[in-house]
From TrEMBL:
One of its GO terms (molecular function) is ferredoxin-NADP+ reductase activity. Belongs to the ferredoxin--NADP reductase type 1 family. Keywords: FAD, Flavoprotein, NADP, Nucleotide-binding, Oxidoreductase. This is ferredoxin--NADP(+) reductase. Residues 2-102 form the FAD-binding FR-type domain.
Length: 257
């Protein structure tokens, strides 16, 4: 059996000239946990050209959804950005990734910190009822350069709290904090800077973070991950993995190079 299967594109949404998302059919044998990624791509001159993409869609959905940047000379995204409804893409049969709540110690609050397309794995996580069972509050922070790059705002703010099954949990436990760095907006600043600011936690209505109560999942560029981890470690938090659950876990957001 091939490592990939062919999925049909069901919808495409262009958020900006740098950002788009799309949905595809899902093979029923393809299983994943919230927060995981799969290899997806296109057949280019007879060869599969694949990159890691986190699933935006919740693990129980019958479709898959992905969020992607558009890199003009990127081997995959320069092509992928032109996909149309009815086209086929390749999806790897195996999902993997470290952004799993079982890699974290139990705690009161779960922070999901993402920049750019680093939001993607957190979209599946905030649609997972099990995550709401484990934490008192889920705090989703999405950092972007510009306001129009804050993808899925409407789904997070308007649709999820009205969701038939999740709505009550979302309304009670999910705090969404979008932040922008290159234009005026109600929230501004980079994530590591926010973590060091009292005003940020006051706005969220929670105590400043500590190793006893707070857990973190991070997804962004290598620089964002490094700077954020530096702040967490300075406060005594330690990274978790499959064999040793910890205070935080990280995943690099996808780049097409
Ligand atoms: P900034 O505008 O100050 O560079 P990008 O599109 O380049 O991936 O950036 C997405 C968001 O991540 C932007 O708001 C950007 O802020 C921010 N960012 C870039 N580098 C870092 C970093 N080292 N730590 C935290 N946030 C960062």
């Amino acid at each position: 059996m091939s490592n990939f299967y062919s999925a049909e594109v069901l919808s495409v949404h262009h958020w900006t000239d740098r950002l788009f998302s799309f949905t595809t059919t899902r093979e029923s044998s393809f299983r994943y946990q919230s927060g995981q990624f799969a290899m997806i791509g296109l057949d280019v001159e007879g060869k599969p050209l694949m990159r890691a993409y986190s699933m935006v869609s919740p693990h129980y959905d019958d479709q898959l959804e992905f969020l992607s940047i558009k890199v003009p000379d990127g081997p995959l995204t320069s092509r992928l950005q032109n996909i149309q409804v009815g086209d086929s893409i390749l999806v790897g049969r195996k999902a993997s990734g470290t952004l799993l709540s079982q890699n974290l110690l139990s705690g009161k609050r779960l922070y999901l910190l993402g920049t750019g397309t680093g939001l993607a794995p957190f979209m599946s996580i905030i649609q997972d009822p099990d995550v709401y069972e484990k934490f008192e509050k889920i705090i989703l922070v999405h950092g972007c350069r510009h306001v129009h790059e804050l993808a899925y705002q409407q789904r997070i703010v308007d649709e999820l709290p009205q969701h038939e099954l999740l709505g009550e949990m979302v309304a009670d436990k999910l705090i969404y904090y979008p932040t922008v760095t290159r234009e005026p907006f109600r929230n501004q600043g980079r994530i590591p800077v926010l973590l060091e600011s009292e005003a940020f936690f006051e706005q969220l209505g929670v105590p400043a973070f500590d190793a006893a109560d707070d857990r973190f999942m991070l997804c962004g560029s290598p620089a964002m991950l490094k700077d954020t981890v530096d702040v967490l470690e300075a406060h005594g938090l330690a990274e978790g993995n499959m064999s040793h659950p910890g205070h935080y876990v990280i995943e690099r957001a996808f780049v097409d190079k």
